[in-house]
């Protein structure tokens, strides 16, 4: 440790240069990291809907249909011309319309009134044509912009690919917008809580270097999700800023009695174990996300895990080197401490601890039950509800009605069996139309006598494709019941079957997420309990700290239930682990300080001293993290990111309230019990060592 600290001070200029070069290189490399806006890509490979999409691509070729274009006031011939032009747009892999179902020659030569109206109405109605498109993943933005340019303002485009393009347009500048608002807030907070005008810049520069390197090292994954791109930099800044604050606080303390070099040696030695313990709890919380089967958790978890480690390295290596070069500037820009002493708030918190404890015990069970009953949103349609995409979707539904398409793949067997199955499907509530070879052409007509472009829409070498038009929403209880019913009916007729469609994907997402929630919470809790056991060498204290933070989490996640607002499943999955990992540090800091003060003071005096000396540090950290959350909430146009920001901001304030108001009551109330247990534990360790 001593050699490590001496090396940092001796080679400070080299360290500074190396970090700056690596950061510059990382900034350039980060431009080549692609961003994935398709949540479907993060489903497990063995999910039913994922398998269905893969087989459909292999058997029928091209991408799965993921967009719709409505052309208003057009003739059959004009619609066909538009179809041809759209099919030539870069990124559009296929365009399907009525001619693919009944045949081009039939459509051009047969009056519409002689065609099956139950089929025609899904594609052409009141001189409005509805085309179905497949757009290549990764090219949504280019393709959709070209489609908009072609169809103009009077026509409409909707679907998952259009949503993805809109989401991409939203996300491009939102990280920078959030940072522009968040950084001044953090600087003001740091100026108030430090004694030098330049120290806040050193903090931000140190963590900023780590953030840039983290973004650049994402090149090893090739791509990251848009959730990670938007959330990760802001979370990394807010969570790891404490490490830099602690190191410089320790340096400032030792400067009072030592020369700068010696003071930094003491600061590094003092900070590494404390900051490492703090980082460990955060790392455990983020690492729990990796255990999700839904890949978005691993994507964000690995990125944040890597970010915290890089922040730790930057604080322990880069910041000491930077400080030793700039400590004279720190001295010249020093100012008196602007933050007030917390003697009065400390006394007040001691007095109100029992009422707050009673209140916490009163709300913990209802909050736990309420958060477990929260209704979730799994789709992305809410993101674009206020944009042109939302208006176009409503316009299409106005003309053609609410339409939700499901596609079933069944073995290519005899037409009679397929006809029987289609009849069963047509009787299912909310199924408005069933389109297949046997319904569009007839079970008695051999495929050899039908135009090839029609046959290839319904038959591949091994499978028959059946298209279901339903009037359900993209998701919800009714929709998911319908998906389950279709799967059950398919199982009654075929041994092998696959169901695809956006609702099927969300159905799989729901079942996977329900398992992921339990796994990630369990892993996070067990991991943090283990860290706390090692830190305090007590079995009681980890439970007290866990109760404190988990209660705050349950209260936070119960808000959607009591306000009757559905919650994005992403927000629920992420916040339950992030809030635990990021805010349990407040409880650790308070408990550690109390245990030290308790060696020489009575219970109440020890807690009063603890609150007076540590409340400012806890509030500084909490306000920064809460500001990061609320900044995300108010600067993003993406409802999912906004909701996550609100959960983070509100959750942080609830956690700090529990730590400052409830934890003191628990520590004082159970002081005798856990101190006795800890003394016994230490004796056992001593005997074991002997």
From TrEMBL:
Keywords: Cell membrane, Membrane, Transmembrane, Transmembrane helix. GO terms for cellular component: plasma membrane. Pfam families: MMPL. SUPFAM superfamilies: Multidrug efflux transporter AcrB transmembrane domain. PROSITE patterns: SSD. It is a multi-pass membrane protein. It is found in: Cell membrane. This is MMPL family transporter.
């Amino acid at each position: 440790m001593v050699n490590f600290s001496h090396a940092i001070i001796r080679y400070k200029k080299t360290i500074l240069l190396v970090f700056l070069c690596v950061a510059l290189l990382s900034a350039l490399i980060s431009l080549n990291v692609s961003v994935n806006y398709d949540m479907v890509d993060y489903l497990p490979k063995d999910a039913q809907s994922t398998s269905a999409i893969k087989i459909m691509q292999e058997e029928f070729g091209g991408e799965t249909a993921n967009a719709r274009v409505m052309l208003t006031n057009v003739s059959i011939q004009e619609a066909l011309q538009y179809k041809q032009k759209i099919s030539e747009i870069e990124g559009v892999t296929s365009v399907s319309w009525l001619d693919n179902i009944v045949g081009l020659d039939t459509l051009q030569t047969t009056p519409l009134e002689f065609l099956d109206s139950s089929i025609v109405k899904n594609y052409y109605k009141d001189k409005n044509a509805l085309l179905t498109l497949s757009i290549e993943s990764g090219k949504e933005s280019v393709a959709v912009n070209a489609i908009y340019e072609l169809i103009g303002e009077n026509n409409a485009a909707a679907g998952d690919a259009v949503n993805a393009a809109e989401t991409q347009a939203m996300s491009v500048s939102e990280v920078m917008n959030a940072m522009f608002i968040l950084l001044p807030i953090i600087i003001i907070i740091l100026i108030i809580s430090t004694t030098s005008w330049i120290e806040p810049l050193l903090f931000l520069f140190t963590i900023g270097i780590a953030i840039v390197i983290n973004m650049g090292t994402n090149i090893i994954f090739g791509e990251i999700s848009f959730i990670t791109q938007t959330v990760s930099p802001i979370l990394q800044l807010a969570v790891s800023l404490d490490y830099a604050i602690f190191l410089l606080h320790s340096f400032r303390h030792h400067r009072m009695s030592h020369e700068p070099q010696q003071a930094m040696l003491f600061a590094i030695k003092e900070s590494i174990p404390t900051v490492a313990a703090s980082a460990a709890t955060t790392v455990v919380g983020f690492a729990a996300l990796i255990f999700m089967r839904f890949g978005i958790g691993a994507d964000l978890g690995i990125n944040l895990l890597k970010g915290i480690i890089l922040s730790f390295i930057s604080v322990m290596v880069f910041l000491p080197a930077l400080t030793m070069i700039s400590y004279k500037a720190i001295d010249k820009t020093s100012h008196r401490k602007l933050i007030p002493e917390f003697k009065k708030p400390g006394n007040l918190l001691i007095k109100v601890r029992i009422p707050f404890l009673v209140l916490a015990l009163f709300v913990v069970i209802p909050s736990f039950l309420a958060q477990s009953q929260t209704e979730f949103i799994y789709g992305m349609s809410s993101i674009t509800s206020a944009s042109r995409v939302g208006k176009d979707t409503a316009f299409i539904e106005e003309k053609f009605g609410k339409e939700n398409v499901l596609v079933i793949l069944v073995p290519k067997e005899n037409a009679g069996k397929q006809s029987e199955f289609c009849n069963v499907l047509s009787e299912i509530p909310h199924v408005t139309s069933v389109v297949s070879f046997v319904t569009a052409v007839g079970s008695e007509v051999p495929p050899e006598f039908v135009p090839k472009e029609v046959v290839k829409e319904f038959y591949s070498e091994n499978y028959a494709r059946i298209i279901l038009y339903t009037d359900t929403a993209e998701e919800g209880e009714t929709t998911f019941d319908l998906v389950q019913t279709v799967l059950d009916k398919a199982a009654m007729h075929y041994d092998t079957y696959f169901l695809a469609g956006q609702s099927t994907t969300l159905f799989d997402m729901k079942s996977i997420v329900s398992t992921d929630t339990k796994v990630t919470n369990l892993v996070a809790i067990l991991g943090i309990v283990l860290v706390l056991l090692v830190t305090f060498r007590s079995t009681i204290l980890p439970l007290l700290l866990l109760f404190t933070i988990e209660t705050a989490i349950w209260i936070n996640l119960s808000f959607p239930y009591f306000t009757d607002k559905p919650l994005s499943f992403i927000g629920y999955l992420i916040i339950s682990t992030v809030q635990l990992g990021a805010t349990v540090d407040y409880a650790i800091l308070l408990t550690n300080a109390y245990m030290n003060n308790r060696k020489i003071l009575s219970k109440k005096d020890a807690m009063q001293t603890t609150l007076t000396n540590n409340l400012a540090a806890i509030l500084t950290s909490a306000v920064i993290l809460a500001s990061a959350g609320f900044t995300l909430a108010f600067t993003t146009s993406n409802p999912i990111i906004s909701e996550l920001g609100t959960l983070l901001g509100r959750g942080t304030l609830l956690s700090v309230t529990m730590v400052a108001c409830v934890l003191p009551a628990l520590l004082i109330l159970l002081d005798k019990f856990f101190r006795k247990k800890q003394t016994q534990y230490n004796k056992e360790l001593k005997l074991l060592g002997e």
